[in-house]
Amino acid sequence: MNKEKLDAILDKFINGRLLALMLKETRQILRDKQQLFLLCFPPIVQICLYGFALSPDVQDLRLAVEDECKSYKSRELASALVENRVFKITKSPPTLAALMVGIERGRIDAGLIIPPDFDRKIDQGHQADVQLIIDGVDANTAGITQGYATQMIQRFSQGLSQKKIIRPAISEVTYAYNPGLISSWFFVPGVLGLVLTLTGTLVSSVTLVKEKDSGTLEQLLMTPADSWEILVAKIVPLLIMLNGTVLLALTMGTLIFNVPFRGNFFTYMFVSGIYIFVVISIGIILATISKNQRQAILTSFFFNLPLIQLSGALSPIESMPDIFRWLSYLNPLRYYIQCVRNILLKGVGLEVMWRDVLILFFVAVVLLLSSAARFRKQLS
Fold first, then answer.
1. Tell me, what DSSP letter sits at residue 132?
2. Is the pLDDT of residue 305 over 90?
3. Helices H, strands E: what count in the chain?
4. Global confidence as pTM
5. What own/partner pairs with CB < 8 Å and gap ≥ 24 does 370-378 have?
6. Are 110 and 62 in contact (CB under 8 A)?
């Protein structure tokens, strides 16, 4: 008897309205060049743009050297600063005043001033002072530059010292999961969540709003299909298409930026599937409160920007003020990005990140039920 009931349900699905509606929605998405463009092109551009542009590394800063000593040791000091391509020596101005004007006008990023008695003081065993002037408009770059320059000058000073320094304790630092400290390994998993958020909310909201604009939604209401069948028929094709976007973004992240994939592929797709329900639900809510496509696109930025900024995708959550760190606990994108980084970089499974997955699942259920209620209310 149970087998007969199951066969009856499957037969109703295969030959019934739900499958017909799902096939209709799939054909409609495949025929819509704008939808296919949103599913394929923006993820490619965003992965490349954010992956290459978002980097805390500082390179090729224009360094002007005002060498008033003009000795072997002063030239060695200038060479030490350009070893790792953080600085590149540019044409030095003739005077200190001209150097300051170059920094003021943005032609020079930093200036190294070596006094005329630099070589003599070192030979006499005295402390030789040098001055480094850095453009501090960009505080983050200036801080990184100052730290690097200080380290290189200290290393240069140790090389000149003839005395052996006995160190009572020596620390050996090992970087787990990212031995080379490659910045893209931190940013690209965050960008995967960012791309899925922007693409998923935009595609799902535009799909529903377009049907309201064209009047096909009213035509569906005149069919025998129930409201839940209409909603499921719209969600399932979007779910399949956005899974393709997930695979496309992951492939680009691993091939272009060499981000490792140390975890289980099916765990990654399972977590991504849960988050796809989150973004589709947000898109449905946007569609129910928007009157046209332009309004839906503009409203999506109002929702997506806080999600992205409070997710830890672009900057660590630990560096945020306390109030924003607390608000980030309400952000589903935070939990998805944490799961993606754990799967890709650490290779952990659900036994470690089950709390994040459970919270993400709870948020997906709440948003899906809320969006479905708004959608049914709009249909009625």
1. E
2. no
3. 15, 4
4. 0.76
5. 370/281, 370/285, 371/280, 371/281, 371/282, 371/284, 371/285, 371/288, 372/228, 372/231, 372/284, 374/284, 374/285, 374/288, 375/208, 375/227, 375/231, 375/284, 375/288, 376/227, 376/228, 376/231, 377/288, 378/288
6. yes
Residue 250 CA to residue 240 CA, distance in Å, equals: 16
Assigned token pair, 275: 């988050």
Closest CA to 286 of 224, 186, 374: 374
> In the chain, what percentage of residues exceed pLDDT 90?
16
Calculate the alpha carbon distances from 149 to 72, 83, 143 in Å.
Answer: 19, 11, 10
pLDDT in tens, 252-271: 888 888 889 998 999 999 99
CATH number of 61-156: 3.40.1710.10
d(CA 380, CA 377): 5
DSSP secondary structure, 73-96, as one string: HHHHHHHHHTTTSSEEE-PPPSSH
Q: Tell me: the pLDDT tens digits for 52-111?
A: 766 666 777 888 888 888 888 888 888 888 877 778 888 777 777 887 888 877 788 888
Task: Identify the band that residue 12 occupies on the pLDDT scale cut at 50, 70 and 90.
Answer: low
Strand, coil or helix: 176 = coil
pLDDT, residue 10, reads 56
| Residue ranges of domains in the chain | 18-54+183-379, 61-156
Three-state helix/strand/coil letters over 15-30: HCHHHHHHHHHHHHHH
Whose CA is closest to 344, among 180, 96, 178, 221? 178
What pLDDT sits at residue 25? Answer: 66
Provide the b/e sequence for 11-40 (b: ≥16 CB within 10 Å). Answer: eeeeeebbeebbeebbebbeebeebeebbe
Percent of the chain at pLDDT exceeding 70 = 79
Contacts of 84 (CB under 8 A, 6+ apart): 148
Measured from the Cβ of residue 350, the count of other Cβ atoms closer than 10 Å reads: 15
Task: Report d(CA 91, CA 67) in Å as an integer.
Answer: 12
Q: Using an 8 Å Cβ cutoff, are 62 and 109 in contact?
A: yes
